[in-house]
Design goal:
Number of strands: 0
CATH topology: YutG-like
CATH class: Mainly Alpha
Number of domains: 1
Order of helices and strands: HHHHHHHHH
Helix content: 55-70%
Distance between the termini: 40 Å
Bound molecules: magnesium ion
Largest sheet: none
C-alpha cells in the first residue's frame, strides 16, 4: 500500500523532470516529431500544435514525472560509474535481457491504456528521430532508460491525442 501523501510538491517534481529531459538533450520539438510520425498516417490533418498540446498534458502527470526522474537518475549514475556490479555493466552496455528500462517506461504508457502499448511497441521498433540519436552508442552518454521513457511519452501523447480529438466523430 502506498501512502498517498506527497513529500515532494507538484512544482518541484514538475520542474525537475522537465529540466532533466532538456539537460539530457530531449526537446519538445523532438517529442512532437515522434508523435507526428505515429499519428499522421492515421490522421493526415493533425498539426504539430495538437502533438505539442498532448505531450504537455502527458508531462503534467505525476506518474510520468516519477518515471523521468528515476530513469534519468540511473542513466547519470551509470555514466558516473556509481552503480553496483553487476548493474553497472548491465546499464552501461544497455544489456538486451535487462528489461527494467522498458518496465519503467510502461508506467507512462499505462496511464493512457492499450493503444499506448501498441504505439510504444511500434516506435521502439522503428526508433525514429531522437530515439535513434539516443540509441547510437557513439558518445559517452548513457541513455538506457531515457530512450524508452521518451518513446513512452510519445506513445502516451499519441494515445491521448487519438482518444480526445478524433474518436468523437
Ligand atoms: Mg532502453
Amino acid at each position: 500500500m502506498s501512502n498517498m501523501k506527497t513529500a515532494v510538491g507538484d512544482e518541484a517534481l514538475r520542474n525537475t523532470s522537465h529540466r532533466l529531459l532538456k539537460e539530457r538533450g530531449v526537446t519538445m520539438e523532438d517529442m512532437v516529431e515522434l508523435v507526428y510520425i505515429l499519428q499522421s498516417p492515421y490522421y493526415p490533418h493533425i498539426d504539430r500544435s495538437d502533438c505539442l498540446h498532448n505531450i504537455e498534458r502527458v508531462l503534467e502527470k505525476r506518474e510520468v514525472q516519477n518515471a523521468i526522474i528515476t530513469g534519468i537518475q540511473l542513466d547519470i549514475l551509470a555514466e558516473e560509474q556509481k552503480l553496483m556490479p553487476p548493474l553497472q555493466k548491465i546499464v552501461e552496455t544497455d544489456e538486451g535481457l535487462y528489461g527494467v528500462d522498458e518496465i519503467i517506461a510502461l508506467s507512462i504508457v499505462n496511464v493512457y491504456g492499450s493503444i499506448g502499448l501498441t504505439n510504444y511497441g511500434y516506435i521502439d521498433k522503428i526508433k525514429p528521430g531522437i530515439l535513434k540519436k539516443l540509441n547510437d552508442k557513439k558518445d559517452k552518454n548513457i541513455h538506457t532508460f531515457l530512450d524508452d521513457i521518451v518513446g513512452a511519452i510519445a506513445a502516451a501523447a499519441s494515445s491521448r491525442l487519438a482518444h480526445r480529438h478524433f474518436h468523437t466523430h
